[in-house]
Amino acid sequence: MKIVVLKFGGSSVGTTEKIKKVANIIKEHRKKNYRVIVVSSAMSGVTNELISKSREISNNFSDEEYDVLVSSGEQVSCSLIAGRLIHNGIKSRSWLAWQMPIFTEGYHKNSRIVQIYKSNILKFLKEGGIPIITGFQGINNKNRVTTIGRGGSDASAIMLAKFFKAERCIIYTDVEGVYTTDPNKLKKAKKIKVISYEEMLEMASLGAKVMQPVSIQDARLNRIDIEVKSSFINKKGTLITKKSNIINNKTITGLTSTHNDSKVTLIGVKDKPGVAASIFKPLSKNSINVDMVVQNISANGKETDLTFTIKSDDLNKTKKILRSNKSINFRKLLFKKDVSKISIIGVGMITTPGVTFKMFQALANKKINIQVISTSEIKISVLIDKKDVKKALTALHKEFNLDK
Ligand code: ADP
Ligand code: ASP
Ligand code: MG
């Protein structure tokens, strides 16, 4: 059986008119003699609305109930897609994750898909039906509904492609593919034809919302090629695949930026073993994700300054935790909202010397101040003021020849 998995993001199913178009795309794939499995996200904005409602009810809303609540958006979109196909005379039905079931492990709000039961879907496919499966959700061994993290329908699609041994996995979205940088932020961004899992994983983790990072990890592990394309215009998109399938002569493949970051600095922290652990342990216990970290070398061997970044949503909680932490001493606590992390990503930088210098020089030429730096083998990230993001992206895009 030749199977294709088609995933539609929130932007593709944002209105009933768009859902009618999605039904047409599904029909096209069926004509090509594929057995089609569809996975959909909630209509755009719906998941956010549900999350706001949970916050209105309680600022400590139960994780179990959060998953039941926020996964409900997918039920709506899937039934609308199935309903439209049935309207068009095509055999279809919706499937909620627990009805299959799709099993997950791990914490609520952030579970991982580990097993998918296929028999009902296979039977339906053989009968010529098109199953429409809810993305983002699963069920755990306690028989509770789970969700797999924001943007998680991408990972649902990849895992469906894995378990059903699909020949193709296509992610439909509101842009034509993966671009050198967010095309909604920089007009000069160019569509990338082919990109490796490694580079896509870095881009996704560093802010390129077009694919969710976990989905890329799963695809890399299972060697699943992903096509990302637009649900609005029929054009060739981007192929995400293994490195050996790619010839790329550019040093840098893409740029990313984050938003909603804040910087925290502790001045005059005692410079002795265990201090960093005492600072970060309570933060991690409270699920606060710490990103970039720098510690200055202490001039006198007694005291040092420690800087790290977090999401701005966690700023108030972080302030409280640090101020009430009896196991650390510091002279002053500084907070800065509205910072952004800009990253350049590319396997080409492994073999090309001088990339770091080129990046810093390009930013310096635009008088953009670098506050924190972090690097890995295939990426360099810098923290800058949020107001400079557009200027920085424009300068770096040009510097690394991505405009062409
Ligand atoms: P969906 O609703 O289909 O899941 P998302 O909103 O999650 O769509 O992802 C698509 C968005 O990702 C685009 O509208 C675009 O603004 C953003 N994006 C960020 N970085 C990139 C990039 N490098 N290439 C393409 N899109 C990007
Ligand atoms: N609807 C979910 C979200 O908004 C899952 C997804 O979009 O993939 O996070
Ligand atoms: Mg998405």
What are the defining features of this structure?
single chain, 404 residues, alpha/beta, Carbamate kinase, eight-stranded mixed β-sheet, seven-stranded antiparallel β-sheet, 12 helices, 19 strands, globular, binds adenosine-5'-diphosphate, binds aspartic acid, binds magnesium ion
Describe this structure in words.
Helix 6 (153-163) packs parallel to helix 8 and helix 7 runs antiparallel to helix 8. 40% of the residues are buried. This protein has a domain at 3-174: 3-Layer(aba) Sandwich (Carbamate kinase). The protein is built from twelve helices and 19 strands. It has an eight-stranded mixed β-sheet, with helices on both faces. With 404 residues, it is of the alpha/beta class. Bound molecules: adenosine-5'-diphosphate, aspartic acid and magnesium ion (MG). The site of magnesium ion has 3 residues, from loops.
The first-level CATH class name of the domain at 3-174: Alpha Beta
- Fraction of residues in helices? 25-40%
Radius of gyration (Å): 23 Å
Q: What is the CATH fold-level name of the domain at 3-174?
A: Carbamate kinase
Q: TL;DR of this structure?
A:
The chain has helices spanning 16-31, 46-57, 63-70, 72-87, 119-126, 153-163, 197-205, 213-222, 275-285, 315-323, 355-365, 389-399, and strands at residues 3-8, 35-40, 92-95, 102-105, 112-116, 130-134, 137-139, 145-147, 168-173, 194-196, 226-230, 238-241, 254-257, 261-270, 293-295, 303-311, 332-345, 372-376, 379-385. It is of the alpha/beta class. The structure holds adenosine-5'-diphosphate (ADP), aspartic acid and magnesium ion (MG).
